[in-house]
Amino acid sequence: MKHLLALMALCVAFAAGAQVEPVGDLNDDGLVGVEDLMTLLSAFGNNYNELNAHPDCVPIEYYGYTYEVIQIGSHCWFAENLRTEIDRNGNPIPYIDDLTDWAAMEVFDAAQTIYEFNDSLLAIHGRLYTWNAAMQACPTGWELGWDTTPWFLLETEAGMPVTSIAGLWGRGMNSECGTNLLDESVDGNNTLGFNALLSGDVFYAPYDSTAYFYGLNERTAFWTSTSAWNNFCQFSHELYMGGGLGRELLHPQFFDGVYRKGYPAKSGISVRCSKYLGG
Questions:
Q1: What is the pTM of this model?
Q2: Which pLDDT score is estimated for 278?
């Protein structure tokens, strides 16, 4: 309320062209100008967001680590990649430290790793999970979101054109909807505070049963809980058997939209947990 009253006072003073000791002189230059107005609008906006933050969207401690979160529309999202080694049921998620072993896993095995087995990347990029590990990895009350909800909603908030939202592969070109989800440190706009980094993944190739790390600082991908087989029936049964739909972001110099595509279940990619806030 005090910000609203101050804003009203500033607007009145600004309209009247006040010159001496005005109520709205925020930079102490004896004048009321555009800089004062922008300063107050910024403070008012930040305060407004704090006042309207949902009480259920607060940082969450999960197996000894506290995750930052961000409210985007009707959902609360992790604002960083998942890094847990234990699933929501208390079961350890096996860590794989050899890509030959990764490729040799069964389709429905749960596993996780760190990019290039480099522990120094964990704090920045989190862990990479197979689809079946990802399905059980989020805390109780949170979820690996469906392909449509909450991902379509997130993409809409980021600027994805409605006419593109249900498409496959690269969508939203020239809308910067992907760039808006990327962190500033990787040349993104980060307009929503989603903080996506270019974390790379474990690329699994079913046609020759090989796995390799790919794309650090160039791309990132996130699992959804929706099956790729049901949505990508034009692909071979062997390729997408047990696989999931995901999202992929590239560095803005390559593509500024969001890819919607299927991944074999033995791919290792990032996880963002979310929960519905109601309303």
A1: 0.81
A2: 86
CA distances from 82 to 112, 223, 269 (A): 11, 11, 10
Looking only at Cα atoms, what is the longest distance across the chain? Answer: 77
| Length reported for the chain | 279
How many Cβ atoms are within 10 Å of 254's Cβ, its own excluded? 10
Q: How far apart are CA 68 and CA 80, in angstroms?
A: 7
The mean pLDDT value of the chain amounts to 84
Q: Is the peptide bond before 150 cis (omega within 30 degrees of 0)?
A: yes
pLDDT tier at 28 (50, 70, 90 boundaries)?
low
